[in-house]
Amino acid sequence: ALVALFATLGATLFGLVIGYIGLIIERRSFKAGVEHVEHGNASIQTEGLLFSLLSVGAIVTAFPVISSYFIDEWGRKMSIMAGSLVFIIGSIIQLSCQGNTQLFFGRFVSGMAIGLLSAVIVLYQSELAPASMRGALSTLYQLGITFGILLAAFIDQLMVDREEGWRMVMGIFCLPAACLLVGIVCLPRSPRWLVQKGRRKEALKV
User: Fold this and answer.
1) Which of 63, 68, 93, 166 could make an S-S bridge to 24, C-beta 3.0–4.6 Å?
2) What is the pLDDT of residues 54-76, one digit of tens each?
3) pTM for the complete prediction?
4) How far is it, in rounded angstroms, from Cα 50 to Cα 30?
5) 15/173 Cα distance (integer angstroms)
6) Number of Cβ within a 10 Å radius of residue 66
7) Exposure on the CB side of residue 148, measured as CA atoms within 13 A
């Protein structure tokens, strides 16, 4: 149960990356640093791409041909580690950006992380959860997304009005991803995946 609860951090990342952008794009420091405009609003094209490129990236790695490769060949645990690392990379690309192109690319990379994590987290939770709690623990994924959106709004309110505060927000979001990346090392592999790979003794031990 604790393993499934910890894995919910992956869903929280999804909520964070969905929830933070709305307030940020209206801030003067963001518009000056990314769009290089001192007054007015971010262009409609910029806003549209910021939201849509995240979804495009998620679609790419959630696409069954790609996600199944990671899940079946790398395993659930390694896929979560890969998703967490890609999320950190995407966040660093965004917080260090000096223009639209780099920010768009960072959003796309973060979307790729979210797509992979979305495909693997619920599977990992269900395969590690006790049979009597499997359904309840699997619902933690949706709870994690909702909590992430709430947390993103809270962090935005605290940070975005500071000078370069929007960059700080993206840096803060690396912390839960780093916790997931490091913490998952200590968690077991999926017993179902171990059986699929013929490692029955390890599966029984788990």
Assistant:
1) 166
2) 999 999 999 999 999 999 999 99
3) 0.88
4) 13
5) 11
6) 16
7) 27
